[in-house]
Design goal:
- The chain is mostly helical.
- The protein has one domain.
- Helix content is 70%, strand content 0%.
- It contains eight helices and no strands.
- Helix 2 (8-29) runs antiparallel to helix 4, helix 2 packs across helix 6 and helix 5 packs antiparallel against helix 6 (101-116).
Length: 148
């Protein structure tokens, strides 16, 4: 059982990376056809497009975070960037469109991975912290110290 458990975060990280990388790129290149939207879903998506910056920002964040997850680099940061996007995807597909099992999977996978990498979030979630002390500048070499 333990041998399977240690692979779950890796598999979920790859799946999340692929999902966000592919769907993020699809936002720019439109290689996966999207069904037409109606009602609130169309209004919401239209508002994102109408801003001129929000939809490209979301899709660029998805691509970058997907690459980070696939490359196993800054995974906790990628998950933190994807958390609000994941919640929005889940709510969009729960409230504005018919339920989508992929949206539910992405939400659960993100939550599981965040729990798996919880040690990386501990410093960020401390109730009270002090700023780091400034580092002392290195002493400049003087002619006397250079001769010694």
């Amino acid at each position: 059982m333990h041998s399977v458990q240690r692979y779950v975060p890796v598999v979920l990280r790859y799946l999340m990376g692929i999902i966000f990388f592919v769907f993020g790129l699809n936002g720019f290149f439109h290689f996966i056809p999207q069904p037409p939207m109606e009602g609130g879903a169309a209004a919401f998506a239209g508002a994102l497009f109408a801003t001129g910056y929000m939809f490209p920002l979301l899709k660029a964040t998805e691509v970058v975070a997907g690459v980070l997850l696939l490359g196993n680099r800054f995974v906790a940061l990628a998950l933190a960037l994807l958390a609000p996007i994941t919640i929005n995807i889940f709510l969009f597909h729960t409230v504005l469109t018919p339920p989508n099992p992929v949206a539910f999977f992405v939400l659960l996978a993100n939550a599981y991975l965040a729990w798996s990498y919880r040690a990386a979030y501990r410093p960020m979630l401390a109730a009270k912290v002090a700023p780091a002390a400034p580092e002392a500048a290195p002493a400049a070499a003087t002619p006397a110290s250079a001769a010694a």
